[in-house]
């Protein structure tokens, strides 16, 4: 008879703080807040238990947190330290079981199948895991149960080692509050209205009725409330870099020759990545030069890629214009492996490229226009007119709040097209209103105008801005947005209504 | 499953030989012939919107409303959950305007070409060949008509060949037409007329323009409609 599956969950509470404390033990036991964001809007993203007890909370502004907890130690979030901490957590678990799943940055799941004969019962295995994580400087909570979902909830429920005995999952889950499953706000609101407050109450509801009223999201939530796992175990393997190297019998002095050699290296590298079912998140090219020196360049990729032609185009774009002191006599190409997103698409959604196809398209575009010129438009959290950036394009489903906002958007509103950079303008005024405008490529009398609309911001920083905006119709018939920088007195044409 | 095979499967499901409707209407699975702009009179003029698998053109001077037409099309595509792409030749895209007009920025791919004419057409070609985008817009922005003469025709021919086999609508927009007979449909927008609120501090309230069908394989060219855009307060 196959033994019932058992899983352990290692979870590090207050992960961002714990990751910093690994490198700076003096932070342990102190009131610590981890901050993130630009200087003007830096906010607390994580606090230590001591700081929590004193009243600091995630989401607070830095100054508010310091006002509440005067001896609060504020530190910037360190993503490198967090990646190292996740790696340390996985290494600690690897000493007990080879089958691990990285569920989140602060959470590792361990398959305990077959470990009883080696280490004893669940309690002993749990103690072993807790000792191992403490050994790498991370205070982890350990939960052990018959499913991963229950193991995670057990690790969240209490510090130390919590073992849910086989068959005891329903009794363990029943009194837990719904909030421990982090339901979507609309689901949480609906269930609250129905008077459903615990996992036991949700688990007892008829599934068909729940599906009819709350849809697939409600059914998934109920499945988790019953302790069922909603995705397969994705085994984690220690990353090993893929390296392909070649020592040349001749000296390469031109780009075409280099590309010829790189094509072969990339094809072999791609085949290895295919065997691993992953792509390359970054490429590192090391060129050995005649005379003993070497040149190293790193190519970060906008998405994990494996297609040799795309990778070659990106490398070629990176190497064009490169000047080396000596001919190349050896080449090594290293790929940083990263899992490729799954190919499965949603049949009930409009057609869209698979993440893999999208990654290749983005890679080709990055090679064409540059990686910093492709992405999703991102608006800054400010009224500053030029606060526009680009973030990585994923084509992800919009956030609920964004969807709600779009419902109120109006297709019959007028749009603007910006001048990039804004056109410096010479403006004459009459009765404190623009009378004529002259800028590169246009000149005209103002036939109608509206304004000034005054805006200002970030006066507490060096990037303070204060301006007056006017809508002006010029004698050429077009309507422009004209701006006066109140600090410098300079006029610019910012945009045209179109 | 590739985007193309997925679309084919969706088409098969929608056309069940038993006559049963396997796909609910409105889910966006069945191939739609046009990508709507969301602007009623203009969609009527275009016979539903910009044709899929074809190149269309929107031309007009400053303040003729062509950017508003483009954003309307991008907004409709993203609102139904599809992906859209904007190839921006002059980096003049204003995300705040787009968001106000209903474009879901999370589903919009913005490619900034910094003035490269050939690069913009090539970027559109890459996106179309990559597949899965509902609408691909190439906006020539502020480039003057004499600059657009230099758009490489060979690249436009290649783009036209690429888009033929896809359900993507490609729209080129600028101060003049660049695709010639390679475009199935062309709309010319006349200079808009600004309407200002009377009295007190002036307030721009709306812009009115005329849209004329300059080229169409389905309808007689020359038909025109008036389009009006409100200015958000």
How far is the first residue's CA from the last residue's CA of chain A? 73 Å
Strand fraction of chain B equals 25-35%
Provide the structure class of chain A: alpha+beta
Which pair of protein chains has the largest interface, and what are the residue counts?
A: A-B, 66 and 88 residues
**Total E-strand runs of chain A:** 20
SSE topology string of chain B: HEHEEHEHEHEHHEEEEE
The major beta sheet of chain A can be summarized as: 6 strands, antiparallel, barrel
Total helices of chain A: the number is 15
Based on CA atoms alone, the radius of gyration of chain A comes out at: 29 Å
Give average pLDDT of chain A, whole number: 86
Would you tell me the structural class of the helices and strands of chain B? Answer: alpha/beta
**Oligomeric state of the chains present here:** heterodimer
Give unreliable regions of chain A as ranges: 398-405
How many angstroms separate the termini of chain B?
46 Å
DSSP summary: helix tally of chain B = 7
